[in-house]
């Protein structure tokens, strides 16, 4: 006799998965392939997700580390995370055809950085030093013009030559709560510090964290579908743990899921980082259905309708 499957309720965070910047970046690579043929070179992972990268590779994209790997006669796309100014400058010097897929919300931070620098202010950038977005933002200004701060302890130790000429900006994919704490320290220590008119953490990062906060305490375990090098995905794991979920972990896709880790959990939270496609969520739910008697409860917190235009060169 077939053994009855154990019931499992999946609380599905909403919104989750692709944001407008990621969707635009992927479309840019696909349009470039249609327009220019194979191969189209892409500097760094277009977004931080292996499934997406491998899907684009199958269509003819070639992912490279630096521009010296791009032949003179082929186009190159810059990733959604943004690049230092030296990268497009080198592309122009070589007369390369390039398309910039930098997320418009990251470009907004770049413009803020330039504005503060032109006004003579030192810029404090809140972010993770090894992340390509931070490297790109710091690369908008001359060496030494940006001071990187990663946590409240660094903010407490920060020494600035002229505290009256100071501004801050942030990486777009940080923890909303952690960033608020760092900003509070900076404002207490440097009352004249100037910040963005609207916060730099992007709408999608904010909304996905809010969606996890809404379900975390109701879940006995929570899975974030995303990549280990995806900042926004890793922050979702941290948010789940902070807001009352006893077990939270990152899984790249269903094949990587350790079902024994669930133990006897009756409620599993599921979300996806901003660079993870919905097909990977569907895949995980299907794998769960093979093992459990699954009930899916979608928990919406806000609706998203943001769309970013594609570059004119790919639309005309």
Describe this structure in words.
- The chain has about 325 residues and is of the alpha/beta class.
- The protein has three domains: about 5-20 and about 205-300, 3-Layer(aba) Sandwich (Cobalt-precorrin-4 Transmethylase, domain 1), CATH 3.40.1010; about 20-105, Rossmann fold (3-Layer(aba) Sandwich), CATH 3.40.50; about 105-190, 3-Layer(aba) Sandwich (Cobalt-precorrin-4 Transmethylase, domain 1).
- It is about 35% helix and about 20% strand.
- It has helices spanning about 20-35, 50-60, 85-95, 105-120, 130-140, 150-155, 175-190, 205-215, 230-240, 280-290, and strands at about 5-15, 40-45, 60-65, 75-80, 100, 120-125, 145-150, 165-170, 220-225, 250, 265-270, 290-300.
- The strands form three sheets. The chain has a five-stranded parallel beta sheet with strand order 10-9-11-1-12, sandwiched between helices.
- Helix 3 (about 85-95) links the parallel strand 4 (about 75-80) and strand 5 (about 100).
- The longest helix is centred in the N-terminal third of the chain and has 17 residues, at about 20-35.
- The model has no long low-confidence stretch (mean pLDDT about 95).
Order of helices and strands: EHEHEEHEHEHEHEHHEHEEHE
Uncertain runs: none
Structural class: alpha/beta
How far is the first residue's CA from the last residue's CA? 63 Å
Shape: flat
Amount of helix: 25-40%
**How many strands appear in the DSSP assignment?**
12
